[in-house]
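Appendix B. One record, verbatim.
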Amino acid sequence: MSKQLVLHLAANPNPISLKVKAEVAADLGERLTQIVRNGHTQVIEGADGQQFVVNFSHVVIAYFG
């Protein structure tokens, strides 16, 4: 089963949604607040195996929907 990681960027009014595996959401979910707070750059694996690099220093809000 997959989940959606929803990212709201500072310079973009439209949210970006990334479909990720439940395991990725569980792992990332525990650290998401800290990653956004510290502005880390993180590689995130999508549900189809594709990798995304997210610079969380540009993310205002991030959550799983």
